[in-house]
Amino acid sequence: MTDFTALPADLPVPEDDGAARHLPGAALPALTLTASDRSRVDLGELGPGRTVLYLYPLTGRPGVDLPRGWDEIPGARGCSTEACDFRDHFAELREAGASRVFGLSSQEPDYQAEVAGRLRLPFVMLSDPGFALAAALGLPTFAASGHERLYKRLTLVIDDGRVEHVFYPVFPPDTHARQVLAWLRGHPGRGR
Predict the structure, then answer these.
(1) Listed residue (61, 7, 26) closest to 157, CA to CA
(2) DSSP state of 20
(3) Domain residue spans in the chain?
(4) pLDDT tens by residue, the chain, 192 residues
(5) Whole-model pTM?
(6) CA-CA-CA-CA dihedral for 150, 172, 52, 58, to nearest 10
(7) Phi/psi at 53 (5° precision)
(8) Cα gap 111→80, rounded to integer Å
(9) Domain 48-186: top CATH class
């Protein structure tokens, strides 16, 4: 049985393969996704202020094994711990200028709703099972046992409808929200 609350000490570190280099300055597409609370979020109409959008491959569930070889794939393991780090630092992220925080994966809305409830997330998770955002922005993906395609872990800081900053690769995921928080504090937005 896998413990989703802790990361193994010997996880492989992902290397920057350049797959996100083109993203700074990119406009977010008019793309409406279903959220874990069943609302619909249009990424092209996020509103004023900064949005933190973190993408991840898949969140495990207690009692369900992760894909075979998951821990050996650089950057794959740690989705639950990453979500919990964003949960635990959500108020600080807001104080540092993030008007909105979203998690996004290719998992279905019902799966995302279960995760958001179980982990007590104060923000919604977006579902993109068709990889529409990947197609629109040229986002990096990978395959794993039982999954033809999954999002690689990355985080976008979006301001005024455009990607202002990209975190890629993301490691370690269990402290990533704190990395984003430090960046926000070091780069106050126009309205701060």
Answers:
(1) 26
(2) T
(3) 48-186
(4) 455 567 778 888 999 999 999 999 999 999 999 999 999 999 999 999 999 999 999 988 777 778 888 888 899 988 899 999 999 999 999 999 999 999 999 999 999 999 999 999 999 999 999 999 999 999 999 999 989 999 999 999 999 999 999 999 999 999 999 999 999 999 997 655
(5) 0.93
(6) 30
(7) -120, 110
(8) 13
(9) alpha beta
